[in-house]
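Ticket #4471: complex job returned nothing on first submit. Input attached below:
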Amino acid sequence: MAKRYSINTIWYILFVLAISQMVFATAILSPENKLSVYLFCISLVLLSCLVILFFILKKTGRLFNKTLENIFHFIKPNPDINTTTIFSTQKQLNSFIEQVNTILESFFKKHISEIENLRSENNNLITSNEKHKRLIESLSEEFFFYSMQPNGELKYISDSAEKILGYSADELGAFIDSISTKKDINTKAAIARKEVVSKAVQQKYLLEVLGKDKTPHMLEITDIPSIGKNGKVESVEGIVHDISDAYYMQEQLREQEEKYRQIFDFASDLIFIYEFDSEGKPGKFVEANQHTYKVLGYSPNELKKLAPTDLTAAEIWTEKHVPKSDEIYEQIWETKLGRVINIEISEHYYIQNNKKFGIAVARDISERKKALDEIIFMNEELINQKENLETLIDNLTQTQEQLVQSEKMAALGQLIAGVAHEINTPLGAIKASVGNLDDSLNSALKSLPSLFQNQSKESLDLFLKAFKLASVKKPEISSREKREQRRENRQKLKEQNIESPEIVADILGYLEIYEEVDQLYDLLKFKDAIQVLNNVREFISLVKNTRTISLASDKASTVVFALKKYAHRDSLGEKVPTDIIDGIETVLTLYDNQLKQGIEVVKNFNTLPTVMCYRDEINQVWTNLIHNAIHAMKLNGKLTIAARSEEKLIEVSISDTGEGIEPTIIDKIFDPFFTTKKQGEGSGMGLDIVKKIIDKHGGDIGVISEIGIGTTFKVTIPIA
Amino acid sequence: MDRKAIICIDDEPIILNSLVEQLEKHFGIDYIYEAAESAEEALDLIDDLEDEEIDIEIIVCDWLMPGMKGDEFLLRMDLKYPRVVKILLTGQADEALVYNLKQEADKFAIVHKPWEKDEIIHAIKQRMIK
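Support reply: We reran it on our side without changes. The output follows.
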């Protein structure tokens, strides 16, 4: 009821207001009073609007009835009160409305068309706004708009700002200052923004801001100043384009590009790109880094006119022009200044826009190469030196071996000299005896016929007697004794008045008939006795010379046998059971001619077991020690050699009565090359060799010496 | 008839005996043949010969002997009997030694063992002429 009442009341008030205004306006209507005209017009419009509305509503039936009822109700609020209070009849009301209508119609007929125009214009505007709105909404992912005061205070900001930045319009407030970052471009942006206001010019600038989620946004802002009537900027309209995606991607690319550029430019290698010509051969340089220019000495422009093949004659560029990235070539290049450099290069190719390019990374390895060459040179030098040293060592070893050998040879040489003498002596005896035999045989044969045909009994008796006496084997006596006996015989013969006692004594001496001479006294007194004795002598000569030859042969054989034993070489170089004493005796035999000159040899040999030895080497030990002893005694003294065996070893000591070894040098005597002998007399290797041989046998050698008394070397050798 | 002496010295009886006989066969009974086994014995022998007033014509001496060496003995003889023919007999093969001995070639002749009969006779006769 209340609602109805209120609607009725509105209608009522509207009508009254419209009419009263119109009445008032009419009352004061005059061309001079502008306000009255306006009021009149407004009330007229209102009234006409009401009428129009009323008619529109009337067409809707129920609403019409209700409204009408309400209106009448209002006009006649008390049911008891008749509407005729104002309008006596319905007729009167209708005519009133008709009148008003007519007045309104006639009065505003000319304005209706204007209103129609305005309305259609308004409709157009609404349509345009809608379009813009849709457009804007479609751009809301990337764009937003704002309007702000010249002082920066935000008047308006489109909803999409929130979508993009996350801040609501309220939160944004003076949006730029609060969320802009400190990036360099923001400084420029601030300047640009100020200029929009101060210079009243449109500006387009980039601004980086942080969204609510702290992600940076790059905004491309176009600020358009709005200039008021006074010519001053009243407001600034901004179109904001969020170009973050593109910008940051580009920035990233730029950074990356910059990074690679840095690597490219500041690499200490030569990096360059060259193109391939239509024939597939390397063509001109396309691009190169700083280092390439620096090393090659060409400016970028100069280099672009050249091809890699201009800088090197390396076949690789012309023939093997299919670069393999896994291969590193070495080339020789020439720089602009003509310097020849060594280049180590690796490359590969790529195709861009249907063109083939080679990209190469090269390194100037001249220094390295030089250093390497130097190292190689030095290495070779070292190798040479090493080889030289090895040769030297070989030579030394060889020399040492030669020395050892020459020491052996020297010892052997001395031995041979001795041995030669030992053999020459019996040979001499043999030769002389053979000559004597020949002579004697001739004489004996010649004498035979006369001896048996013409001889007297006495002669034959003398011959047979003398021959018998001479043939008796007698003990060997010295020349001194012989001479003595001969002298005695001479005396005896003189006493017997035998002719030519000297000659007879000499012949008897030859026949070695001394004491038995008295048996021949009678026979010697006959004539031809000397002739007969000479005949006997010829026959005895045969016997004696034969015996000499036999003795001499034995002697020579002994020496040769000793030499053979001494020089015996163990072909296998293995230890063989060795009779140590036999070895020492052999050496003594070979040194006999030296020993017999004034050295007494004392042998204290116990029975020894055979010892496993390198036989010829162990004989070398005795040779050297005996040789040294003889030398130390200067062929005069006593050489004592003792041999005995213990449980597992044998011990041989060789003592001389020589001058002895000085205590200051006794420690050095086993050192190689140490010698007390004069230069040329000894190599100083003798005792070194002895030591080595004994070591080889696992034995030991020691020395005791006393000046003026003599020296003893003691050698022990394991039996097995 | 005064016989002159030929003295042979060698420590080896086989040499001494064959050498003496060899010389006896060549030079015959005109000489007295004396043998000694060492230089020392030879010196005694020479003393004896002097006592008997027997002149020495030839001395043939071995080099390597116990005691005094042949060269030393012959040099000593050379001082006393420069006119005596002196022959050094050596079986040594040591060249250096032989070289040293040859330095004394004006004092004595060297004959190597084993020797040819002609060789030693020739050496003696050559010296006898001088």
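Chain B has a mean pLDDT of 88. Closing as resolved unless it happens again.
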